[in-house]
Design a protein that fits this description.
11 helices; alpha+beta; four-stranded mixed sheet
């Protein structure tokens, strides 16, 4: 392929040879005059060809003026007026209200990429080239496909909803996380730790970021939308696989919904899902869970109330049982003491010098007194099981 410098040399050589040949050889012809008009032929022809090429470029690419078309024509044909584009902060630095030739058409041109930025170039055959910080030349067959920043990005999901395994809707609010373009796979191990070089990047990650995108309602979604979908999918999948109580109100310390979701996001499978989008998750706050249905909240309060009341009843019944047992034990001990006294009294009946009849009467009176004392400790209710009325 002939280079632009060689093309310029050939054109100038042809024009000069025509001019010199005309000056030296015209005098030997039979044509009248000095042949000055023939000297203008190559220059006029060259101007016509350049003007036709400029018009073609302007019409083909829809450029706003012929000056831009002329600059592009000279850059392509003769390597003159080659434009340069500065890339910084994840975007092209251009004058306000003007569209740069490299952004509009592509090469030839120079890309001056500042540190912390990366650019993906695509040629007419579909081949891609990823370039980082530095000054890079792009050929006329290449164009800019994607510009990305290597800085960390912050994202916020205001809310998302999902249905639990038992059919209850849960709303997750205020999810916040930070992510970046996936670092160099040679320096970013599977342990989940970041590379020490914060501006390292993987060419594969740049390609995934550019081409592995989902279709949205208004066209191809952005890279941020793809990363957002991964975060939402991990959280909603966990909610769909568990009942509402294990997500919002676990009964034991072994169940930790937030911890399980966090570990899933940073697991090997979770990192692979982010790498498919060319991203690397750095930090995440899962937010808080809510159940918008009031019946669920009321049922949960009623359940907690029944549980606490049941526990209170158990404690109260245990106290009552202990009190009754103590009373029965005391009553049994008193009866045993009473029987002991009766036995001792019977043993003394009939001793010499005492009247047997008086002893028996005293024994009966003592027994009746003990029975009356025992009956006085029992509550008295009429037959209708209600307190006696006056």
């Amino acid at each position: 392929m002939i280079g632009p410098r060689l093309r310029l040399f050939i054109v100038l050589a042809v024009v000069l040879l025509w001019t010199i040949g005309n000056l030296l050889l015209y005098r030997y012809t039979i044509m009248p005059g000095t042949g000055i008009r023939y000297l203008l032929v190559p220059w006029v022809l060259l101007a016509v060809l350049v003007l036709a090429g400029v018009n073609y470029v302007q019409i083909s690419f829809g450029l706003p003026n012929q000056k831009s078309a002329l600059n592009y024509f000279l850059a392509c044909m003769f390597g003159m007026q080659i434009p340069a584009l500065v890339i910084n902060d994840g975007k092209a630095q251009t004058d306000s209200g003007q569209e740069h030739l490299i952004l509009k058409i592509g090469g030839p041109g120079f890309l001056v990429i500042q540190t912390g930025n990366v650019v993906l170039l695509e040629d007419l055959s579909g081949k891609v080239r990823v370039v980082g910080a530095g000054r890079h030349f792009i050929s006329r067959s290449e164009s800019i496909k994607e510009i990305a920043s290597l800085e960390e990005r912050f994202a916020h999901i205001e809310q998302l909803s999902a249905t639990t395994k038992d059919g209850i809707e849960i709303v997750v609010r205020d999810i916040r996380y930070r992510y970046r373009l996936c670092g160099d796979l040679n320096t970013n191990s599977d342990s989940g730790h970041q590379s020490d070089n914060r501006f390292s990047f993987s060419e594969e990650a740049v390609i995934q970021m550019t081409y592995n995108r989902t279709l949205a309602q208004n066209g191809i979604g952005t890279w941020h939308m793809g990363v957002n979908q991964v975060v939402e999918a991990v959280i909603t999948d966990y909610i769909r696989q568990h009942p509402v109580d294990s997500v919002t109100a676990p009964q034991t310390q072994d169940i930790d919904a937030r911890g399980d979701i966090y570990r899933e996001l940073h697991s090997q499978s979770g990192r692979n899902r982010f790498r498919d989008k060319g991203a690397e998750l750095i930090w995440i706050d899962i937010g808080h869970f809510e159940t918008p249905e009031k019946s669920v909240i009321e049922q949960r309060v009623n359940t907690w109330q029944a549980r606490w009341l049941g526990n209170a009843d158990v404690v109260r019944a245990s106290g009552e049982a202990q009190r009754t047992a103590s009373q029965e034990l005391g009553r049994a001990e008193a009866q045993a003491e009473m029987l002991k006294n009766i036995v001792q009294s019977l043993e003394t009946v009939g001793e010499p010098g005492e009247s047997r009849q008086q002893n028996m009467r005293a024994l009966y009176l003592a027994r009746i007194a003990q029975l009356l004392d025992a009956m006085s400790t029992q509550p008295f209710y009429p037959e209708d099981n209600s307190p006696a009325k006056e």
